[in-house]
Design brief:
The chain is built from 10 helices and 6 strands, in the order E-H-E-H-E-H-E-H-E-H-E-H-H-H-H-H. It is an alpha/beta fold.
């Protein structure tokens, strides 16, 4: 699985490269600044990009802007943001283009290596990997689409945003999988997502209210 990595701190960049390669990823490019990221993404067209938000030269939002630019030219390119910061405006734009896998993890909240590697693989496979803190901050700014959801449905939706399966959601909430399925069906209905065999309807359920 081919990865483009963007991280300005040399030790962290080297550490992430070694970590990914230890788990049979191939880091085809590792850049340390914003201007180099977009060309690297367009040249290598990786299976997944792991991108910091704030890169040189301005340390504002170069990483996210490059990721968004790449997905505009290569729709569906999977992007996992790995940052110390939540940038709501560009994060929402990245998460709501409804194309390909997306993730947003906060560096100081990644609990272990296995969690991180699983997140990279999940995003590369077209899924989502969202830190609950990121979800909470985005929802705090745009909560109107959730007004029709019950408290339990909101809990289920937040866990869906983290990329959890029905079984994992059931275990987290101490309910049965049938109950989780019913909540998810209700969420789809309330968010205006018609019946479909497309697995990405779970992703759309999250992205719909983030985009509202």
């Amino acid at each position: 699985m081919r990865v483009v990595l963007a991280e300005d701190l040399a030790l962290l960049r080297d550490g992430l490269t070694r970590l990914l390669e230890a788990f049979e990823f191939t880091v085809v490019a590792a850049v340390d600044n914003g201007p180099s990221l977009l060309p690297a993404l367009l040249e290598h067209r990786p299976d997944v990009a792991v991108v910091d938000v704030r890169l040189p030269p301005t340390f504002t939002d170069e990483g996210l802007q490059a990721a968004i630019g790449a997905r505009q030219k290569i729709p569906g390119m999977p992007v996992l943001v790995l940052s110390q910061h939540v940038e709501p405006l560009y994060a929402r734009e990245l998460l709501t283009d409804r194309a390909g896998g997306v993730g947003y993890l906060l560096k100081d909240r990644v609990a272990n290596v296995a969690q991180f590697v699983d997140s990279v693989r999940r995003v590369a496979g077209g899924g989502t990997a969202m830190d609950p803190e990121v979800v909470s901050q985005l929802l705090a700014r745009h909560s109107s689409p959730l007004s029709g959801l019950t408290t339990r449905e909101r809990d289920v939706l937040e866990l869906m945003a983290e990329g959890r399966s029905n079984g994992a959601i059931a275990a987290k909430l101490f309910v049965g999988e049938k109950a989780v399925s019913k909540h998810i069906s209700s969420i789809f209905t309330k968010l205006g997502l018609p019946p479909s065999d497309d697995d990405h309807r779970r992703v759309l359920a999250v992205l719909t209210y983030l985009n509202a």
